[in-house]
Design a protein that fits this description.
By secondary structure, the chain is α/β, with parallel strands linked by helices. Helix content is 38%, strand content 21%. It starts with a strand and ends in a 5-residue tail after the last helix.
Length: 337
């Protein structure tokens, strides 16, 4: 049976219709899509958005055969050739045995979806992260921030959280889909917190608030999140990060502006219960300080307008050649986060 690339609009429409009975949507972010056909009948399909495999389905009359294994083996080979060395998949629970036979390991499972990985091991990766950053086994708190860019609001959240614990982890979102690159965000946060005792600045890796666990967060004009994706992210944090790092509380700022973040916080509250603590935002002239406010001010009024909103390291960065380029980009584009 031939395996074909899905390229033309009419081919995508065929796949889109094929997926409907499986309650799957052929999403706009798909970068590679394959189909397996027999006598012009679509037998199976599988797609990927970069390193995330999705929209996997097999015709009901062919589910007992090895068609999906054949198709998936080809898709994995293609993704490796494209340079993706850590793969993820969202799949229905009934397809878990197929993916396990291909070497995938389960990360978390909801009522409707199972999230799995290939060529990676979340427990080993997080244990190595713990060792690399000299993090102890004692009970601790944490915050998870994107810091696009780091503001005095972030610092208020971090210092408030730290006041309740002997040790605090500041997880910095590793995904590089923001205006401020991860490497620079991480450096600014590390510099700003250098003199703060017992605070560890640590990358989230691919497993937390990433395009793999939470793709809707990074999509430009998305106004609603898929609760399922928020849940995948929250369960990944609860079942892996909290256990390995011995995290007792996660702290977030109250969200006055973003319905998406507010929904995410509500999902966290439901599943973390009293382990999630919401902190009132720091304000300036009665307005909550947020990264989105800083970006809007930079876009509209330039660097001087944000002087009182950000720590020194952020301000110096924005004065640099890199920072000036970001301000220019902000003025030219309209991105959500």
């Amino acid at each position: 049976m031939p395996i074909k690339d899905v390229v033309l609009s009419e081919e995508k429409e065929t796949v889109r219709n094929f997926l409907k009975p499986f309650n799957l949507i052929y999403e706009d972010d798909i970068t590679l899509s394959l189909v397996l056909e027999e006598a012009d009948t679509l037998i199976a399909t599988a797609s990927a958005s970069d390193n995330i495999i999705k929209c996997v389905a097999v015709h009901p009359d062919y589910q007992g055969a090895h068609h999906l294994n054949t198709l998936m083996s080809t898709l994995i080979k293609r993704l490796l050739q494209e340079g993706h060395d850590h793969l993820f998949v969202y799949t229905q629970p009934e397809l878990i045995p197929v993916f396990k036979s291909l070497g995938f390991k389960e990360i978390v499972q909801t009522m409707n979806l199972t999230f799995m990985e290939l060529f990676g091991d979340i427990k080993a990766a997080l244990k190595q992260l713990k060792t690399d950053h000299n993090i102890t086994d004692q009970a601790k708190g944490c915050v998870v921030i994107n810091a696009n860019p780091l503001t005095k609001g972030h610092l208020h959240l971090i210092r408030t959280a730290r006041s309740f614990h002997d040790e605090l982890i500041v997880f910095v979102v590793s995904e590089d889909r923001s205006f401020f690159p991860f490497e620079d965000r991480f450096a600014i946060i590390t510099e700003t917190l250098a003199d703060e005792p017992n605070i560890h600045v640590v990358p989230t890796l691919d497993y937390l608030v990433s395009f793999a666990t939470f793709p809707k967060y990074f999509q430009k004009h998305e106004q609603k999140i898929k609760t399922e994706h928020a849940l995948i992210d929250v369960l990944t944090f609860k079942q892996h990060y909290m256990k390995i790092f011995n995290i007792k509380k996660r702290y977030v700022g109250k969200e006055p502006y973003s319905p998406m973040t507010d929904t995410y916080n509500a999902t966290m509250k439901q599943y973390l219960d009293d382990k999630l603590v919401v902190i009132e935002r720091k304000t300036l002239d009665d307005n909550p300080i947020s990264a989105s406010t800083v970006r809007k001010l930079l876009k509209k009024n330039g660097l001087k307008a944000i002087r009182n909103y950000v720590p020194e390291a952020t301000y110096r960065y924005l004065q640099s050649e890199k920072g000036q380029a970001i301000i220019k980009e902000l003025k030219a584009h309209d991105k959500r986060h």
